[in-house]
C-alpha cells in the first residue's frame, strides 16, 4: 500500500508571508534520517519544540550538546500560521532553508467561509458573521440595540455593552451604555447584506412577540440578539455554543474573540492602513493595534525596502581591499 505524501510548508514561506495566503506545500515522503519534532500550543511547549527545530536544522548546540545540521520537519499541532510566524520572528533573523512545517493553520478567508457555511442555519449565524466582519468584541455584539442600527443612513453604532460578572456568588449580566474605551464608541457603515439580514431579524422578533404574547421577555425587546422567547444571549452561552459549533463541524478550535483578530488580519493583508484598522476595531491608541498586529505587516516592510533600494544604490565592493 503506497504511503500518502506528507504535505509540508517551508518555514521561510511562513516567515515571510503576508496573510491570508494559501501555503504551497512541498510534497514528499519523509527521507531516512530526517528529524521530526512535534509540539502543541499549550504551556509553552510549541515555543520549546520550535526552538529545538530551529537549532537542529542549523546544526547549533542544544543545551550545550552539539548537533549535526539536518533537515527537520516540525509538526505544529494546534498552531496556526500567524502564531508560527510571530514566534519565528522572535527566534531567528532568517529562517533555515531545511526546516519544514506541517501545521493546522490555513487561510483565514477560507476558514471563515467554512464557518459561515456551517452556521448558515444556526441561531447564532448572524451574530458570528457580524462579529467577524466588523471585528466586534463579544460585549459589543451582545450589546447591539435596535436604536444603534440606522437603516436609513445605513450606519451601525457601537455604544452599549453586555458583560457577565459574579455578584455575591451568582452570575449576573452587566448592561452599560458605555464601551471599553472612548475610542470603542464608533459608527460603522451598515453594508447591504447585513442591512437585509437585520431587517429580517427585526421582523422575526416582532412576530415572535406577537405569537408568545405575555410569555415573551419584554425586558430585552430592544436588543438585536435575543432568543425566540426574548431572552438576551449571555457571553457564556455564546462562547460555549461557538465551541460546540466548531467541534460539531470539524473546524479548527479557536476562541470566539479570535473572530475579531481574523477581521484585523484580513484588513491588514488587504493593505488597509494600520490607522484605519485602529478606528475600525475601536482601539484607544494606534500603538495597541500596532503591538498586536505588527507581526502581520511584513508586506509594508518589503515595500519600504524596495523603495529604499531604488532611491539609495549601494556601492559595489572593491575586491582586494580590507
Provide structural commentary:
- The protein is of the alpha+beta class.
- Helices cover 42% and strands 15% of the residues.
- The chain has twelve helices and ten strands.
- The protein has helices at 11-16, 45-58, 81-91, 108-118, 125-134, 138-142, 192-212, 235-248, 258-269, 274-281, 286-293, 298-311; strands spanning 6-10, 26-28, 35-39, 72-76, 99-103, 149-150, 155-158, 161-167, 170-176, 186-189.
- The protein has a five-stranded mixed β-sheet. The protein has a three-stranded antiparallel β-sheet with strand order 6-7-10, with no helix packed on it.
- Helix 3 (81-91) links the parallel strand 4 and strand 5.
- Helix 5 (125-134) crosses helix 9 (258-269).
- The longest helix has 21 residues, at 192-212.
- The N and C termini lie far apart (61 Å).
Please give the order of strands in the largest beta sheet.
2-1-5-4-3
How would you describe the shape? elongated
- Let me know the average pLDDT: 76
Q: What's the β-strand tally?
A: 10
Distance between the termini: 61 Å
Instruction: Estimate what percentage of residues fall within beta strands.
Output: 5-15%
Low-pLDDT stretches are 1-6, 19-34, 38-43, 294-298
Give the radius of gyration.
24 Å
Helix segment count? 12
What's the main sheet like? 5 strands, mixed
Question: Given the helix and strand composition, which structural class is it?
Answer: alpha+beta
The helix/strand order is EHEEHEHEHHHEEEEEHHHHHH
**Into which percent range does the helicity of residues fall?**
40-55%
